[in-house]
Design brief:
The chain is mostly helical. It is built from 5 helices and no strands.
Length: 131
């Protein structure tokens, strides 16, 4: 669930940045209805991505968890890079705050994913019999 939320948060942050970054102050005032409609669509996409991700992850058999974790770590790393770029860009404050939150969520997800993957792989290593 955290993976789906972090990925969707990163995607939503990128989408909001791209949509709001192209407007000047005068254009923003005239296109405020369009911007609000776009933000509603972005919230809808975020909720749909979170729900879909949760449904997919809960139906994965335990045998496939290790390969899935590796793929999830790669996706989270991409989200982390995008979040760092957004958090450090010259954008409005709320976008930088969302970027910082996305950086924190993606970092926790990547680190936790690697810790869990490492623990899962240790289960498959043969231990030496005591002599």
């Amino acid at each position: 669930m955290i993976s789906a939320v972090a990925t969707a948060l990163g995607a939503a942050t990128v989408a909001i940045t791209l949509m709001s970054g192209g407007f000047t102050a005068a254009e923003s005032a005239s296109a405020s209805g369009t911007l609000i409609d776009a933000q509603i669509v972005e919230v809808y996409v975020f909720l749909l991505a979170a729900f879909t991700g949760f449904q997919i992850i809960t139906k994965v058999p335990p045998l496939l968890h290790t390969p899935l974790m590796a793929a999830t770590n790669a996706i989270s790393a991409i989200s982390l890079v995008a979040s760092i770029v957004i958090a450090g860009s010259e954008r409005p404050l709320y976008i930088n705050i969302m970027g910082a939150i996305a950086v924190a969520a993606a970092t926790v997800n990547v680190v936790g994913g690697f810790v869990i993957t490492d623990r899962m792989l240790k289960m498959f290593k043969k231990t030496e019999a005591p002599k």
